[in-house]
Write a structure and sequence with these properties.
The protein is an alpha/beta fold. The chain is globular and about 45 Å long. It is built from five helices and seven strands; from the N terminus they run ββααββαααβββ.
């Protein structure tokens, strides 16, 4: 099974959407990491320390496994998702298998978009003249799963 993360770039900034899974978390689940996200970023000429923002679509292990790669980024996660994965409920075995709960151990609370899960929130704010990339809640897969809206020249 393939696992992905995405890069959004403008001349002013770089945003990462999700961060893949960590090697140890993958090993515990029988997954082999063929290309470490740090190596993928290096191949693209991206320094993780230069990443401005990381959007976390949801808290499963294969989406939050490499948060420490981005020491200077602001982290964005739907508030409903953050509250679930930092709650006692997330520690139950039926949920804990799917997350490394790195958000709790990191000691650095992600910057939450705020508002309701369904209200898209601006993530890229530097270009006030054009449309903005937004993350908004969609629900379903997890309590606060987000989707990312990326405006293009075609809509």
């Amino acid at each position: 099974m393939d696992y992905y993360f995405w890069i959004l770039q403008s001349p002013e900034e770089t945003v990462v959407v999700d961060t893949g899974f960590g090697e140890e978390a993958g090993r515990r689940r029988g997954r082999i990491l063929l290309l470490h996200p740090a190596d993928a970023l290096a191949r693209l000429g991206i320094d993780p320390a230069a990443v401005n923002d990381v959007i976390i679509t949801h808290g499963h292990y294969d989406h939050i496994g490499n948060l420490r790669l981005f020491p200077n980024a602001r982290f964005h996660m739907a508030e409903a998702e953050y509250r679930f994965w930092t709650s006692p409920t997330a520690g139950h075995v039926q949920f804990s298998f799917y997350s490394e709960l790195l958000l709790r151990r990191r000691g650095n609370r992600p910057a939450l978009p705020g508002g309701s899960r369904r209200t898209p929130q601006a993530v890229l704010r530097r270009n006030d003249t054009g449309p903005r990339t937004q993350a908004g809640g969609s629900g379903g897969h997890t309590p606060g799963q987000a989707i990312v809206y990326i405006p293009t020249s075609e809509g």
